[in-house]
């Protein structure tokens, strides 16, 4: 798989045989910060102060809540009513409640594992994985999920943000002679990326707090808009709440597993929890767990207040008539596009664009952090403003190329999401056992072992269901052929 190099700086750098911009930085935990018994102040290592994740440690509960909300709520939540249409009322709500409680618990584990002991801080997910499972197994288990959930999410945000920008301008200027209607999908992706790169010039994760606040506000707004519109517009004729008949028993099992996957993947952001906590000051008297956990509670409460009404109201309004490959926005466009004001649709598209721009910054930050580490490892000095700008332009260009070249990446979302799911539901449980070493056969040992094994089994089942669906239905794997995501189906004219 690769090798581990110990540099002359206080880092252990994980290297793979295939170069990747998403490789991680693994600082030695005992040198991340050292407690000073007299002053009780934090003493960070010099190189930690040069990297964008840990450069500024002035964050708090509110800034962490902003980051978590901006990275945690996305348009993947539009699929929740689709999941309910496959599961029905009881099992849909039960699975949503279970997924919410499970992901909240694993976030609590990550918050506690960020500082498992005095003088130890793990500010990157792959770093914690290597410490818990060892260099080889830690890289093997966590490298691909971290890579996908950072770079892959940025690619999807370009797809969603660029597509929403295209739809926004279509509704603003309906005239075919308008220059906005002459831009191709790839050109809209480039416009979105240029805006994202401009925002990315902020130096570090803590300086993105205002951007994350805007991202959180827009995510809350479009979720609220959609579930309120679903209720006020009323139900179309022929709405039923009985799960549709499947072609075979195997098809029915596949539909159920796909629906469970939609619910599980609606909760995201675990791969940046440790990074967000790394922006907070910490010392033995005031550890970072306290404000971070307050931020988690606030963000998860608001997330629940967005996702539960979205799922319940969306399913109530459209039942099993909701488009299986679309979502709530697609259903609103299909059934109420004629009697929905253009101003409302413009507002929703604008909110999605702004939220995608803000979320891009959070998910790109681990990549920026790693690329800057490579620079300071060779030069033994901080990145200049121009070097940082070049790194951000490089990553923006790379993600745009992938978004244009592999525009069908969203069709592989259930498959890749199933592979990455253990990072959210399973690995934190096993990390707790490996690092905290709870009493064997005790309550915490059984709880984490059971949840960890269940997360792995669920991941295997979701991957199997995704593969079966691809084999059965196929995918439109056309390269360099940009098209709108089904989640962004425009209103009917």
TrEMBL record:
Keywords: Amino-acid transport, Membrane, Transmembrane, Transmembrane helix, Transport. It comes from the Eukaryota. Residues 58-470 form the Amino acid transporter transmembrane domain. It holds the Pfam family Aa_trans. GO terms for biological process: amino acid transport. It is found in: Membrane. The chain crosses the membrane at residues 60-80, 87-105, 140-162, 183-202, 208-229, 295-318, 347-368, 389-409, 415-435, 447-471. InterPro entries: AA_transpt_TM. One of its GO terms (cellular component) is membrane. This is Lysine histidine transporter-like 8. The gene is AATL1_4.
